[in-house]
Design brief:
The chain is an alpha+beta fold. The chain has helices at about 15-25, 30-35, 40-45, 50-60, 215-225, 230-240, 245-260, 260-270, 275-285; strands at about 5, 75-80, 85-90, 110, 115-120, 125-130, 150-155, 160-165, 170-175, 180-185, 195-200, 205-210. The chain is elongated and about 65 Å long.
């Protein structure tokens, strides 16, 4: 479960020193070692000027600042390493949020990477933490998930916490003042797992943290104006793409274009991932019009 770590020292280090430490300690890929060395992130967060210096450097060339940032705002990627990433997140109080700003307040969610986080500036947010078994989850919207309550805690300046990939779920509540946390992100080996949003009271999945925002409109457009070549390409994606959500999306698009034929159904149900199979069954359930030729019937 997510754990709080007591920092061992209050001496400060620079961002460059922390990067060098992480690069020279690849054993931190494993949670035990990352937790053992968590105090180094605490030392970075005892440096009151490192993030200001970083922002000042960005202001000097604002057009190029954060161009390679793959995270949603207000995340700042400070460094991409050989096995890790370092980022800072600005947490705004509700009174300072613009209507279109993307923050995960009030939404329970997990992460598909291990996360060591330290509160760097401000009073920090409140967070309520749960735990679940990702291996028992298919991943469809509305699916019931057993979320076991762990703790309700604050995240004040200097506090260190470690969250485990695809295991810990937390709901964050806005701080009273602008706050900043600094994170060490450690991806887990293998295909990234789905990240979910949860309704923690109803204990159901309500959405995905990293939605297929670009692929959805592409596939919808292909569904509307595609041709025979599109069918062949979609079939290749549905059968072989490494991302199971993309495979499910491709099968849905194929069924909407061609109907739910026996051949397509049998091939789709050979997929190794339960999410794809459930997507196929959901798509069949939504096809309530006249059946095309060779349609599989439930």
């Amino acid at each position: 479960m997510a754990c709080t770590i007591e920092p061992s020292t209050e001496s400060a280090i620079s961002l460059e020193e922390y990067i060098d430490f992480c690069e020279s300690h690849p054993e931190m890929k494993e949670p035990d070692a990352a937790i053992e060395h968590a105090g180094k992130l605490g030392q970075l967060c005892h440096n009151p000027s490192f993030f200001t210096d970083y922002l000042n450097d960005g202001l000097k060339s604002l057009n190029q600042f954060q161009q390679k940032n793959d995270f949603k705002p207000p995340n700042f990627v400070l460094y991409y390493g050989s096995y890790f990433a370092i980022r800072a997140i600005v947490w705004l109080p509700m009174s300072e949020l613009a209507a279109d700003e993307l923050l995960s307040y009030f939404d329970g969610h997990d992460h598909n990477f291990d996360l060591l986080t330290c509160s760097y500036f401000g009073s920090g947010y409140r967070t309520v933490i749960y735990q679940y078994d990702h291996n028992q989850v298919t991943g469809y919207i509305g699916e019931h998930v057993d979320l076991a309550f762990q703790e309700d805690t604050d995240f004040p300046h200097g506090k260190l916490m470690y969250y485990f990939s695809s295991r810990d779920v937390h709901t964050q509540y806005p701080p009273d003042e602008l706050s900043i946390s600094v994170n060490l992100i450690i991806p887990r080996p293998g295909e990234p797992k789905l990240q979910f949003f949860f309704d923690v009271e109803k204990q159901v999945i309500t959405g995905y943290v990293n939605d297929l925002t670009m692929r959805n409109p592409v596939f919808k457009t292909v569904e509307a104006i595609g041709n025979d070549n599109s069918i062949d390409l979609l079939l290749r994606i549905a059968s072989h793409h490494p991302c199971f959500r993309t495979r499910g999306l491709a099968w849905t698009t194929l069924f909407n274009m061609e109907g739910i034929t026996d051949d397509f159904f049998n091939l789709a149900m050979q997929d190794s991932h339960s999410y794809v199979k459930q997507t196929v069954l959901d798509t069949i359930g939504s096809h309530k019009t006249a059946e095309p030729k060779g349609v599989y019937c439930l």
